[in-house]
């Protein structure tokens, strides 16, 4: 007789996981050692100037998704479901016929600078935080929509659809808004997890501008017939809502054994915080610019954005465009040899937000503040990593104080977990052991929610993580500088 585990191993789930610099389609299969991940398709991503704005080529990304799903179906003919996660806050505008009016504007575009004050005159920052618990970032969705109201497309808009929900719509024909990503818009009530009619009305936004909400673990719909024909996936394949904000999925993928894990999800951005049962909506929390974002199972991701590997990525790009060919591994090794105490920058500063000559900006930032600018490429890399680790330590200390939740060890997941120097600096500056990995925490969390919805993993999120921790072997970095393998 076939065991439940053996039957589970025959079932495959697909994660569509797209970040600001790259995307992937990942197959997940449950084995005796947990979820086995197989990347079946990778593709680049990036915003580019078009029609006067910095835009995403979402149509092109959708074609890459279809290519990946075709490969997924070729390798695994019995795919049960798909889940989609992307970055937050950005959206596409649909007309009454469901057509995309323009490629989505990227959050790094500067169009919101002129409307932030207008929004705050309609709803004060204090009231916004009382309702939404969202940290102030000038590119939050509500500011983007205020800018949109001034634009030429607004009279034709029927729906604003967050990017993972838009991809799901194209795959299924069903329009919904996944709640963890909705929590990043500045329009969702942090307590009730419903759209705030108060804020929508104050900003002159239709109450049904966004499609109805859906929670992680709920089934959205089966694939549309045209998508099934294009990809070869089985007619029974469904799209299941997951933590569609990639950080929500990444936090599910944290291999924690405690109830309220501390985490750094490090990629293009870094998000540093703790998972809580309830939001923290105090004045002190607002003044510290902490955010209360929705997590899976009604949890709260209490965190703050810290500048991420974007600073390093843009520096490498700038050097390549200048005709240089720096080797990242060599630069990291050289940076690790440099003594501590070099210059640091505020990785959150707005000057580092937009694409451009990042090394020049970093040097100028240091010079303006009387610090010696990093002259060599290795020194600049060390400056970036020292600055990030300082930001992590500062943010973690504030999160503990504001949430009254002590963090004994810190989970660092995502692409940054491969950066040994960053992990060690984080351990040294936070004074906490750092468990690094998994790299693919976002895809892992995405797939885990799907497998759980199919009844193959524990319903309890804490137990699900404990099982994950039992089989994953994250690398441990101790504040003393000693590195050990294993938990």
Key descriptive features of the protein:
2 domains, alpha/beta, 6-stranded mixed sheet, 487 residues, 18 helices, Nucleotidyltransferase, domain 5, disordered C terminus, globular, 20% strand, 37% helix
Polypeptide structure, described:
There is one protein chain. By secondary structure, this protein is an alpha/beta fold. It has 2 domains: 4-240, 2-Layer Sandwich (Nucleotidyltransferase, domain 5), CATH 3.30.420; 254-437 and 457-487, Nucleotidyltransferase, domain 5, CATH 3.30.420. 37% of the residues lie in helices and 20% in strands. It has 18 helices and 20 strands. Residues 1-7 and 482-487 have low confidence and may be disordered.
Helix-and-strand structural type = alpha/beta
Q: How are strands sequenced across the largest beta sheet?
A: 15-16-14-13-17-18-19-20
What is the highest CATH level, the class of the largest domain? Alpha Beta
The amount of beta strand, in percent, is 15-25%
**Radius of gyration, whole Å:** 22 Å
**Could you tell me the number of beta strands?**
20
* Mean pLDDT over the residues: 93
How far apart the termini lie comes to 36 Å
Task: Using the alpha-carbon principal axes, give the shape.
Answer: globular
**Tally the helices: what do you get?**
18
CATH superfamily of the largest domain: ATPase, nucleotide binding domain
- The low-pLDDT segments are 1-7, 482-487
What is CATH's topology name of the largest domain?
Nucleotidyltransferase, domain 5
